UniProtKB/TrEMBL annotation:
Domain (Dynein heavy chain coiled coil stalk): residue spans on this chain: 22-223
Keyword terms: Coiled coil
Highest taxon, organism lineage: Eukaryota
Coiled-coil stretches noted in the UniProt entry, renumbered to this chain: 108-149
Ranges of residues in domain Dynein heavy chain ATP-binding dynein motor region: 253-472
Organism whose genome encodes this protein: Aspergillus ochraceoroseus
Single GO BP term: microtubule-based movement
Name this protein carries in UniProt: Dynein heavy chain
Any one cellular-component term (Gene Ontology): dynein complex
Ranges where the Dynein heavy chain AAA lid domain occurs: 851-1000
Molecular function per GO: dynein intermediate chain binding; dynein light intermediate chain binding; minus-end-directed microtubule motor activity
Length: 1033
């Protein structure tokens, strides 16, 4: 470019001048620009070196001050020169700035120099510090080493001291445990030496003893012990099976699971735990089911029965899934379980199979089988016996005694019972806790490694054992003291427990007299509970000794009053005598042995006077009478031999200080030897003296029985063939206005109707009466189970009328309330029975009706009582006079008396239509009499008793006979007064009351007396055997 714009030239000239070139023309500028280092000189321009102050001033004055020297003007002229203008301005400005900061830079340099000097001094000081720190660290290390050494010495001293202290404590603890451990060691040595004998006894017990009751088990074990001793095998003496085969914790657990607290049940629980063959349980009380259910709480127990149609399915399910199963009614054992009892398992491809019927099913090893029966008399074939383990829960006297004591203590002294229970539990827990501590110590010793003094677990366990063992020993001593006090209080009630045991033993043996006399434990428990919890006399008495006597007396009275209803009349006095023997009252029981001795023959000297010398010789030679027989005059003996009521004039051949009971027993013995015909009345006198007349005054009202039983307890009305007691239920239904379905057995329709009626009534709470059930024994077998499964309404009642047949299942008899009906023996009993059904009717107007009813009751009693003497006396035929005749005659009286009274409260006796009443009553009773003489005799009796003269004062129903003052009718008119009069009649009336000769009763009574003595002897011998076994046990 030859002639550039002025601004371009000015800009390039400024650049060249700034770079230090002298510019005089454009060519000079071009020459500078064309140089190779031109750009480099610009880029590498060193302002600080090349820009002097003068140079800067020159630039400012010659270039920067000009108006054209701006970036905008130059840049418009040349894009390349524009930035050079900015560079020049920047260099000039920068130089100016450098001039201003120059002094500061010098000062900075000076300060930097001073800083370097300071750093040098600091480094020197730091080096000194490092040297000092190094020295300090060395000193610290040396000090730490010294401290560590000192601490190690102290630690060692502490450890040594700790070991010394621990050694002392260990020795102290071991010294305190030494005595106990030495005793344990000796005990262990003894156990080792007697191990063979002990295990033999235990194994034999588990294998053989389960079938037998407690007394027989004791006898078996004693026999085994004698055999081992004779064989030279050592065994531990006084080693109860309950202690040897179970521990305290197991026994406490069993008690919590409702196992009764007695040795028999504990032994049976041991067998149920250790069996090899499946158990077959004999359980009359039915208590074991609850125990097994609680024992099997981890796996629910299935309860079924061989009489249940679904039992095979339930058994199959239990076999598959390993659940425990209880099959009841084992007396009906189904052969389908034979393979199960034999444990015939088959292993196929990893599966365990067992045959059930025609199929093979999987078998679980957890499966458990229990069989049970409630029939203690059930018998099983040998093949079943060999494949099962029998476990007999039949209650014995000793076990019932224990249970009764517990029950009476809970009621009478709940505080003492709670203390006793807690103490027994506490003592057991103490022993368990001590044994657990010993186990922990042995485990700690076993797990200890190295020096025992270094094992904290061992030392702590040993110290805990020492401390707690001392506390437990102290508490055990304290509890023993309290237990002694509690036992002394308990001892006061043991007489009740012994009486309960004795009474139940009597009930258990009654079946030897009659097959129908079967009574369950629950029956007796109900009696005992009623004596305790429903006794009005106890509510009024606070003295404990008096309460014990009330419970004792009422126990025997209530037992007789309830049980006698299930006995035939002639066996009731026998039962009362057995209760008198069992009573805990002071009397010489050896006299009873003489009475029951068969070698001491009985005679009736009133009818066989030729035996007088022989009998008197026998009396004189007896030790009981030898010293006093000669003091009695001949007149007294003759009076005794010939008096009709000989028991009232027995010679006093005993000391004056002899107690009342022993006097009466001697009287009874004399009556047996000399006047056997009066033995039963004499026995009644003895019983009244022991228990009072109240014994024979119990209620016979069927309604009371209905109130006493629950819905699952059938009421069985048993009667002799030809006598139907079902009318009593009909009368009760009418009186209570209850709803009752009547079903008669004897056909298949009857079975179906009975099942349907029972199901409906059980749901609705109504009644069912099934008649003639002895015709359907197979139906009765499952009846008890059906009632339990129904869970009936509380108001449901089932009545079963039957004949006394051996086909009736024992289980049903034991599970039901049996009422034995017959023609009541004795006028008094007959009248009481008749009046009980008329109590409500007799209280209605007119008041004279009650006396007419009493006349009818007496007639009914006489008519029936004369049947006892048929056919030689009384009647020529055995006419079936029954309560239906009486009921219809009562309706006749109702109709005719009401028709005359016309609603009035009184009516003149002479206005009653006596002829009409007598004729209709005669036809009612005489309709079944086909003998003319007997019919005439019936007419005479009806005319004699149904007479208006009976309304006169001091009227005697039968006059001119011995002791006829008893037959004087009371002057009152209420039925209650007549009932009291009936209760005062003699239990055994003379035959003259019946219009028979005075001696008619003799042969009858002699036979009754001999039968009674025979039955007493039979039952007493069985009771004595059981009592002796209990004493031995």
């Amino acid at each position: 470019m030859g002639n550039p714009p002025a601004s371009v030239r000015l800009a390039l000239e400024a650049v060249c001048t700034l770079l230090g070139h002298k510019v005089d023309s454009w060519k000079t500028i071009q020459g500078i620009v064309r140089k190779d280092d031109f750009i480099a000189s610009i880029v590498n321009y060193d302002n600080e070196r090349q820009m002097t102050r003068n140079h800067r001033l020159k630039m400012q004055s010659e270039f920067l001050s000009k108006e054209d020297f701006t970036y905008e003007r130059v840049n418009r002229a040349s894009k390349a020169c524009g930035p050079l203008v900015q560079w020049v301005e920047a260099q000039v400005n920068y130089s100016e700035i450098l001039d201003r900061v120059g002094p500061l830079r010098e000062e900075v340099d000076q300060l930097e120099e001073q800083a370097l000097q300071t750093k040098a001094e600091a480094q020197a000081i730091e080096n000194t510090i490092n040297d000092l720190e190094s020295s300090i660290a060395t000193y610290k290390a040396e000090y730490a080493a010294l401290i560590s050494e000192t601490q190690a010495i102290k630690t060692e001293m502490s450890r040594v001291q700790f070991k010394v202290d621990r050694s002392v404590r260990l020795l102290d603890s071991l010294a305190s445990e030494r005595t106990r451990w030495e005793e344990g060691s000796k005990s262990f040595e003894t156990q080792i030496s007697t191990l063979v004998g002990d295990v033999l006894i235990a194994a034999a017990f588990l294998a053989y003893a389960g079938f037998y009751d407690q007394q027989f088990r004791k006898a078996m074990i004693d026999d085994w012990v004698n055999q081992l001793v004779q064989s030279g095998i050592n065994l531990k003496p006084h080693n109860p099976i309950t202690e040897y085969l179970s521990n305290a914790d197991e026994r406490l657990t069993w008690q919590d699971h409702s196992l009764p607290v007695d040795d028999l049940c504990t032994e049976n629980a041991i067998i149920l735990k250790r069996y090899n063959r499946y158990p077959l349980i004999i359980d009359p009380s039915g208590r074991v089911t609850e125990f097994l259910q609680k024992e099997s709480s981890d796996r629910k127990l299935t309860v079924t029965s061989f009489l249940d149609d679904s039992f095979v399915k339930q058994l199959e399910s239990a076999l598959r899934f390993g659940n425990p199963i209880l099959i009841q009614d084992a007396e009906y054992l189904d052969p389908i379980i034979n393979h199960v009892l034999n444990k015939e398992y088959q292993k196929t491809g990893g599966r365990v199979l067992i045959q059930l019927g025609k199929q093979e099913i999987d078998f679980s090893p957890a499966f458990k089988l229990f069989l049970s029966t409630r029939d203690p008399s059930a018998s099983f074939p040998p093949d079943v016996c060999s494949r099962t383990t029998f476990v007999n829960f039949t209650v014995t006297q000793s076990s019932l005694q224990t249970q009764s004591l517990n029950e009476v203590l809970k009621f009478e002294r709940p505080d003492v019972d709670a203390r006793r229970t807690d103490l027994v539990k506490l003592q057991g827990e103490f022993k368990i806790h001590l044994r657990q501590l010993e186990k922990r110590l042995l485990q700690a010793l076993n797990e200890s490694r190295g020096n025992i003094l270094d094992d904290d677990n061992v030392i702590e366990t040993l110290e805990t054992l020492k401390k707690e063992a001392a506390e437990i020993s102290k508490k055990m001593v304290e509890t023993e003291g309290v237990m002694t006090e509690v036992e002394n209080i308990t001892l006061k009630y043991s007489i009740i427990a012994k009486s309960c045991s004795a009474v139940f033993a009597v009930l258990e043996q009654l079946h030897h007299i009659n097959h129908f006399y079967q009574f369950s434990l629950q029956y007796f428990v109900d009696i005992f509970n009623s004596v305790l919890y429903q006794n009005k006399r106890l509510a009024q008495e606070k003295d404990h000794s008096a309460r014990v006597q009330i419970i004792l007396r009422d126990l025997f009275i209530t037992t007789y009053q309830r049980t006698s209803l299930g006995l035939i009349q002639k066996d009731r006095i026998t039962f009362a005598m057995l209760l008198a023997q069992a009573a805990p009252y002071a009397m010489d029981k050896s006299i009873i042995d003489n009475i029951l001795d068969e070698s001491i023959a009985g005679a009736d000297l009133s009818s066989s006077p030729d035996l007088k010398e022989q009998v008197m010789g026998r009396v004189s030679n007896m030790s009981l009478f030898r010293s006093h027989a000669s003091t009695v005059s001949a007149e007294q003996w003759d009076q005794f031999f010939n008096e009709e009521l000989a028991e009232n004039v027995v010679p006093a051949v005993w000391d004056e200080n002899t107690n009342e009971f022993d006097q009466l027993l001697r009287t009874l013995l004399l009556v047996k030897i000399c006047r056997m015909d009066r033995f039963v009345p004499a026995a009644e006198r003895f019983i009244v003296a022991v228990f009072s007349r109240e014994l024979f005054e119990g209620s016979t009202d069927l309604r009371d029985i209905v109130d006493q039983v629950n819905a699952t307890t059938p009421i069985s009305l048993s009667s002799s063939p030809g006598f139907d007691a079902s009318y009593k239920v009909d009368a009760l239904v009418e009186r209570m206005q209850a709803t009752c379905a009547n079903i008669a057995m004897g056909s298949n329709e009857g079975l179906e109707s009975a099942d349907k009626a029972i199901n409906n009534a059980a749901a609705a709470g109504t009644w069912v009466q099934v008649k003639n059930v002895h015709l359907a024994p197979s139906w009765l077998q499952s009846l008890e189970k059906r009632l339990e499964s129904l869970k009936p309404h509380k108001d449901f009642r089932l009545f079963l009328s039957m004949e006394s047949s051996p086909k009736i299942p024992v289980n049903l008899i034991r599970a039901s309330r049996v009422l034995m009906f017959e023609q009541p023996a004795g006028v008094r009993a007959n009248m009481k029975d008749s009046l009980s059904s008329l109590t409500t009717r007799a209280s209605k107007a007119p008041v004279e009706k009650a006396r007419v009813y009493v006349l009818l009751c007496f007639l009914h009693a006489v008519v029936q009582e004369r049947l006892r003497y048929a056919p030689s006396l009384g009647w020529k035929g055995f006419w079936e006079f029954n309560d239906s005749d009486y009921e219809c005659s009562a309706l006749i009286i109702d109709y005719w008396v009401d028709s005359i009274a016309q609603g009035r409260s009184n009516v003149a006796p002479q206005k009653l239509p006596w002829d009409m009443i007598r004729t209709l009553v005669t036809e009612m009773y005489g309709g079944k009499v086909d003998d003319h003489e007997d019919f005439q005799q019936l007419q005479r009796l009806v005319h004699s008793f149904l007479t208006p003269a009976a309304f006169e004062d001091e009227y005697k129903l039968v006059s001119g006979v011995e002791n006829d003052e008893c037959l004087t009718l009371p002057g009152q008119t209420s039925i209650r007064d007549f009932v009291e009069w009936v209760n005062r009649l003699p239990e055994r009336e003379p035959p003259t009351y019946l219009g028979l000769p005075a001696n008619a009763e003799k042969l009858l009574l002699v036979g009754h007396g001999k039968k009674m003595i025979s039955d007493l002897a039979k039952v007493t011998s069985l009771l004595d055997e059981g009592e002796q076994l209990m004493i031995d046990a």
